[in-house]
Amino acid sequence: MDSIVSELEGTLVKDPDPFSYFMLVAFEASGPIRFALLLMFWPIIKLLNILGLKGVGLRLTVFIAVVGLRIDDIEYVGRAVLPKFYMDEINMDAWRIFSQYDKKVVVTRMPRQMVERFVKDHLGASHVIGSELVVNRFGFATGLIRNVGLGPECVVTLFGFERPSLGLGRSHGSNSFMSLCKEKCHPPFTTKLKLMEDNHNFKEPIPVIFHDGRLVKQPKPATALLILLYLPIGLILGIIRMIMVLVLPLCATPYVKAIYGLTIIVKGKAPPPPSSSNKGVLFVCNHRALMDPVILSRVLGRKVPAVTYSLSRVTEIFAPIPTIRLTRNRQVDADTIKKTLEKGDLTVCPEGTTCREPFLLRFSGLFAELTDQIVPVAINYKAGFFHATTARGWKGFDLFCFFMNPRTTYEVTFLDQLPKKATCLGGKTSHEVANFVQWLLGATLGFQCTNFTRKDKYRLLAGNDGFVMHTKSA
After folding, report:
1. Poorest-confidence range of 243-257, 345-359, 399-413?
2. How far apart (Å, rounded) are the C-alpha atoms in residues 374 and 367?
3. CA-CA distance, 353 to 151, in Å (whole number)?
4. Cis? peptide before 188, omega within 30° of 0
5. Nearest to 18 by CA among 174, 136, 123
6. Cα(461)–Cα(48) distance, rounded to whole angstroms?
7. Which sequence ranges are marked TM in the entry (predicted)?
8. How far is CA 187 from CA 10, 106, 211, 230, in A?
9. pLDDT tens, 189-229?
10. Are the C-beta atoms of 105 and 127 separated by less than 8 Å?
């Protein structure tokens, strides 16, 4: 069986410096104070690395980033936050070589708990060789690590008398495991790829569909400093904007959009408001962020109620549009939606939860059973610094994070109302209608449709064993 051992930093992942990933752990598992403290020590850590004391610099970084944190919180960040940023930095040439082997092993300087989910779930690695966080009997990280620099010994233990077929790593890195491999390959990998391309079909790594956390950008030192400098301004802006939302009517939004920092791009033609001769329509949207229904109402120039599942009470208080809380009881929710549609327009997001990446989750077919007046609306959203929705943490803080961003861009595209023949009245099943609307929105946005559901998202983020990633079209 062909086998490969690859270094993670600087090989499978382009950036040889893992510092920004520890910054993510500090922010997402602890908060801005630890985030700022770790950044303050960055010049010292950098100096230690320059002096050849990388082991000391790593231990100092780990200690500041994780000491006193629950191991469950660290593992959650490693599972739900870091994979997206690793994927953004992946070296596709290294991956194409790595993916062709049967037994794949990754060697890393970072603690195993931070990288294991990414390399196993998305790169298909069978083993991870890295340092281990020391955890006390109460489940808290002590800030200490063990098994630092034991790559070669662990490779020998893992492979026994059999030498790995290929070693991938930098020419000048902490990759002494390379001497144990039958063949060695260093960046830029062009020669090896040329030899392989005639006999292999290169495939893509399994994409990251779900991820969590507040930070939009990877906090490399310069970006982290910018975020910290902006935080006081963002806090003030967030308070001002939330007060304005509570006090000002929705129609005032165009006149104060500069203060909101909001850019809205509208495409397509919106349907007219309901009247005696024109009953209300159901706006069916994909769900990108907390404010999707509010932005839709802003574009339409009228308050359109929206159905919600897990909106916090704080957000409901500040919401400038009516919100209708559903129960996840199908019959009760169907009656609620029908009664609301009798009064006029309604907005629904059939995914049931947000998805940040360019994918659409499976649409619930309930909406298709209740009306034939269906207008699909494609929504895309780009935030500046902070994501407005997370799976963990206090939900009441979501709206505040949205308003803390320096600038936010929304793109709203109205599609044509579905013809009768494409609805349940035209003989289609509710699932056929839901899948068709999902496909329409995916094609408009350039997103891939999946069969994932809200439950799948939370199962994956919770780390349930046996969950398999896929992107099968609906």
Report:
1. 243-257
2. 9
3. 41
4. yes
5. 174
6. 35
7. 20-45, 224-248
8. 9, 16, 29, 37
9. 877 777 776 666 777 899 999 999 999 999 999 999 999 99
10. yes
| Chain segment 56-79, per-residue pLDDT in tens | 999 999 999 999 999 999 999 999
**Tokens 């779930």 belong to which residue?**
121
The single-letter code of the amino acid at 281 is V
Which amino acid type is present at position 275? S
Length of the chain: 474
CB-based contact 450:304 (threshold 8 Å): no
pTM given for the model = 0.91
Secondary structure of the chain in HEC code, one letter for each residue: CCEEEEECECCCECCCCCHHHHHHHHHHHCCHHHHHHHHHCHHHHHHHHHCCCHHHHHHHHHHHHHCCCEHHHHHHHHHHCHHHHHHHCECHHHHHHHCCCCEEEEEEEEEHHHHHHHHHHCCCCCEEEEEEEEECCCCEEEEEEECCCCHHHHHHHHHCCCCCCEEECCCCCCCHHHHHCCEEECCCCHHHHHHHCCCCCCCCCCCCCCCCCCECCCCCHHHHHHHHHHHHHHHHHHHHHHHHHHHCCHHHHHHCHHHHCEEEEEECCCCCCCECCECCCEEEECCCCCCHHHHHHHHHCCCCCEEECCCCHHHHHHCCCCEEECCCCHHHHHHHHHHHHHHCCEEECCCCCCCCCCEECCCCCHHHHCCCCEEEEEEEEECCCECCCCCCCCHHHHHHHHHHCCCEEEEEEECCCCCHHHCHHHCCCHHHHHHHHHHHHHHHHCCEECCCCHHHHHHHHHCCCCCCCCCCCC
